[in-house]
Write a structure and sequence with these properties.
The chain has helices spanning 4-13, 26-29, 50-62, 113-121, 137-143, 150-153, 181-187, 222-235, 278-286, 301-305, 330-340, 390-404, 422-429, 433-443, and strands at residues 17-19, 43-46, 67-70, 86-89, 96-99, 104-108, 125-126, 160-166, 172-176, 196-203, 205-206, 209-218, 240-248, 263-271, 293-294, 297-300, 317-325, 349-354, 376-384. The chain is of the alpha+beta class. The structure holds flavin-adenine dinucleotide.
């Protein structure tokens, strides 16, 4: 049992801010990106440095407290916060240091991808990440990380050189392919199961101005667009990435008024090859079936990364489900049309992110991330500002997912899961699961880090 004296002793031992239910900041400090999550932690420590993280891990372990780690707070299932326990909030630890000579970037555990893109862009560099700048580096990386640069440069974890990790016993270790190799293997896909990552070292790549943007077609054309996309995308140069989406057109510029709120299908493109070749690369895309809207052109990479930030601000209700996909059969496309054309709310969507190219060239047992033989990572996201619609968006997402699951590769990207049970976690890691359990037994035998897609220290 925690008593006030213990809490006070903890408070004076740290430099960061310790927030409890009676503090003014408590309500905002416990909020995460998904407003459907409403958890009430006992304490939240906004850590200042690694010493604070160590103190917090020790305090949780010694007092038998449930422990959550908050990176960017973007997790759909709300795994950056917990009821009744201690939250290690890394949001003050956002330092980013770029070394342009070695093309590496050192990033603290609480940074967002916007922080990283801003710092690297000054040197004409970028680290492969996701598609929204407000997402946390911590959770996205530890789950795998896929986005616009995946086909060319791989997952975020494929560009991780080393990480500093605070372990369950309070020690700080570095994991890399030369130090604590089994831990390094496990954190590349195994999520926050093994410790608190206070610092990541990434390889960066020369990416500055990209040729990018959305191309949209009327939803009645979805069958032919999807059939064309499934052939075109895997055969395209790895300089080109395009994720397919069902979406409702936002009611505002740059979209023409006659398209506002209309359900459409489309692809959001990002081309990182030589700009002088862009017209030629985009010719077959813009010539396919006369799109209803196209807004592609050169833009700074961080502008593309922030393209959806305004449409998807924090504080919306989210319910999502995902699966990896090896092929898009005609039967799967028929199910997509049935459900994707009936988006339940303005912001709800379905995305298919390519995970081929460089992602597929890493072996499925080389890192904990197993689905290296899939071509797409699918997410079906029910989204709305109004909690009144929660049941509607969740039912739509579940029904859509159930219809598509038989055509999937079986497991989902851990970062696109709600709390869906142990079988789903196992289906995600497949034959890497046993090795993850062994790593868990070694690095966190008491399962202190369990607010995540949990890998238990025993096989049963
Ligand atoms: C709008 C939106 C767009 C997205 N787009 C993409 C995308 O394009 N590509 C993609 O790959 N994913 C994407 N995601 C999914 C995203 O990767 C996950 O939501 C991820 O969990 C977010 O990480 P976070 O640090 O913000 O989350 P948090 O909620 O803070 O944490 C999530 C999990 O990671 C753990 N964790 C976080 N930081 C650390 C750390 N430093 N050390 C140890 N454990 C840690 C936490 O314990 C928790 O279990 C998107 C999510 C949203 C909401």
């Amino acid at each position: 049992m925690l008593n006030d004296a213990d809490v006070e002793k903890f408070r004076v031992s740290v430099r960061g801010e310790l927030i409890g239910p009676n503090d003014e900041k408590y309500e905002s400090a416990r909020e995460v990106y998904n407003a459907m999550i409403d958890k009430r932690p006992r304490l939240i420590l906004r850590c200042s440095d690694v010493a604070d993280v160590i103190a917090a891990v020790n305090f949780a372990r010694e007092n038998g407290l449930l422990l959550a780690i908050r990176g960017g707070g973007h997790n759909g299932a709300g795994l950056g916060v917990c009821d009744d326990g201690l939250v290690i909030d890394l949001s003050r630890m956002k330092g980013v240091r770029v070394d342009p000579m070695s093309r590496t970037v050192r990033v603290e555990g609480g940074a967002s991808w916007g922080d990283v893109d801003h710092a690297t862009h000054a040197f004409g560099l970028a680290v492969p990440s996701g598609i929204i700048s407000t997402t946390g580096v911590g959770g996205l990386t530890l789950g795998g990380g896929h986005g616009y640069l995946a086909r060319k440069y791989g997952l975020t974890i494929d560009n991780l050189v080393e990480a500093d990790v605070v372990l369950a016993d309070g020690r700080l270790v570095t994991a890399s392919d030369k130090k604590n190799e089994d831990l390094f293997w496990a954190i590349r896909g195994g999520g926050g199961n093994f410790g608190v990552v206070t610092s990541f070292l990434f390889r960066a790549h020369p990416v500055k101005t990209v040729y990018a943007g959305p191309v949209l077609w009327s939803v009645d054309r979805s069958a032919e667009v999807m059939q064309w996309y499934r052939e075109f995308m895997p055969m395209a140069s790895e300089d080109l990435f395009g994720f397919f989406a069902f979406m409702n057109v936002p009611p505002g510029p740059p979209f023409p008024e006659h398209l506002h709120t209309k359900t459409m299908c489309g692809v959001v493109w990002c081309y990182t090859g030589p700009l002088e070749n862009a017209d030629q690369v985009f010719r077959p895309i813009l010539n396919f079936g006369a799109p209803d809207f196209a807004l592609v052109g050169p833009m700074p990479f961080p502008a593309l990364q922030g393209l959806f930030d305004a449409i998807m601000p924090p504080g919306l209700q989210w319910y999502w489900k995902g699966d990896f996909v090896r092929e898009l059969s005609d039967a799967a496309i028929a199910e997509h049309l049935k459900h994707g054309s009936k988006l339940p709310t303005l912001l709800s969507t379905m995305h298919l992110y390519p995970v081929d190219g460089a992602v597929n060239r890493v072996g499925k047992n080389d890192t904990a991330f197993s689905h290296r033989d899939s071509k797409w990572s699918m997410v079906i996201a029910g989204i709305d500002p109004d909690p009144v619609n929660n049941e509607r968006i969740a039912t739509w997402a579940r029904d859509y997912w159930s219809a598509l699951h038989p055509y999937s590769a079986g497991g989902a990207y851990v970062n696109f899961m709600m709390e869906e049970g142990q079988d789903r976690v196992k289906a995600t890691y497949r034959d890497n699961y046993e090795r993850l359990v062994a790593a868990k037994r070694k690095w966190d035998p008491a399962n202190l880090f369990r607010v995540n897609q949990n890998i238990k220290p025993t096989l049963t």
